[in-house]
Design a protein that fits this description.
This is YfiR family protein. The protein is of the alpha/beta class. It has a single domain, classed as Rossmann fold, CATH 3.40.50. It is built from 6 helices and 9 strands. The strands form 2 sheets. A 7-stranded mixed sheet has the order 1-8-7-6-5-3-4, sandwiched between helices. A hairpin with a 2-residue loop joins β7 and β8. α3 runs parallel beside α4. The chain is globular. The two termini are 32 Å apart.
Length: 181
């Protein structure tokens, strides 16, 4: 009995620490370490987002616009979920195509970024950027790489403007500045 109370106490104390550090992942050594870390993180973010349509979709379409700054090898997979199909598009092609469930925004002209963020508002489109670590330019999730680690932050205002539902635990993790280890 005393042992189970002690274990429960440790778990209760340990949970906040896990939340504080869960928005970061260590990047493995090697040429593909950063690509694997980005793909794990993007896949994890996608898995905690709920789209308003029925779950009958065959796959999620991730559209890469601009030049990704952290890695060019973006091919996330969602454990136990839908596959992700990756398309590279111009900013103009996104609004014509209209089947992008996820926009991955790399480095691009400011006018193109503003146009895409404006187009996404009110739509069921998840936006992730790797060219805005402080999440100031309208993307919902923003990746940042530093000192062998990959982290993310969230833009609650951008998430609140659309019909997507994001698990509150992920939102809490993304609000942390990533300084805890």
């Amino acid at each position: 009995m005393l042992g189970s109370l002690f274990l429960s106490g440790i778990l209760a104390v340990a949970q906040p620490v896990a939340v504080q550090t869960a928005n970061q992942t260590i990047v493995e050594d090697g040429a593909d370490g950063m690509a694997r870390a980005v793909n794990r993180m993007v896949g994890g973010i996608i898995s905690y987002v709920r789209w308003p349509e029925s779950p009958a979709a065959a796959a999620r379409n991730l559209c890469i616009v601009g030049s990704p700054t952290i890695t060019a090898s973006i091919a996330p997979s969602i454990a136990g979920g839908l596959p992700v199909t990756v398309h590279r598009l111009s900013a103009a092609a996104v609004s014509v195509r209209k089947d992008c469930d996820i926009l991955f925004l790399g480095r691009m002209a400011v006018a193109d970024r503003q146009r895409l963020i404006g187009w996404v508002r009110g739509r069921a489109v998840l936006t992730i950027s790797d060219d805005d670590p402080d999440c100031l330019h309208g993307a919902m999730f923003c990746l940042s790489a530093r000192a062998g680690r990959l982290g993310f932050s969230v833009n609650l205002d951008a998430i609140g403007r659309g019909p997507l539902r994001v698990d509150p635990r992920v939102l809490k993790m993304g609000q942390n500045d990533g300084s805890a280890t």
